[in-house]
Amino acid sequence: MVRAKILLRLVELSKNIGRHYGLSAGEIAIAWTLRLSAVTGAIVGGRSSNQVDGIVGAADFRLSEDEIDGIDRFARANVWVKEEAAA
User: Are 24 and 13 in contact (CB under 8 A)?
Assistant: First the structure.
């Protein structure tokens, strides 16, 4: 349950960033993933054309350094560190 609450806070952070650009939380998550030099593509799927429309904006979008840093800080403090400690 705690993990779900943390992930929902990450979704809210992504939604807040997306609102500034008219993008969805999913598009922000994809853009955050695609910024990594080791990532050559993101595998995404949609069940409808509306869902596809909701992710294509990520292809050309670039997060600012401050936005990347904010997501990274949140993830390190709440997601990745907890998983590493449990391992």
Answer: no
pLDDT, residue 61, reads: 92
Q: Which residue has the tokens 């992504």?
A: 14
Q: How far is CA 1 from the centre of its chain?
A: 20
Asked if 30 contacts 63 with a C-beta cutoff of 8 angstroms, the reply is no
47 pLDDT band (50/70/90 cuts)?
confident
Contact criterion met (CB below 8 Å) for 46 and 40:
no
Task: Output the six-digit token pair for 9.
Answer: 């806070």
pLDDT of the residue at 1: 67
Q: Show contacts of 52-55: CB within 8 Å, 24+ apart.
A: 54/24, 54/26, 54/27, 55/24, 55/26, 55/27, 55/30
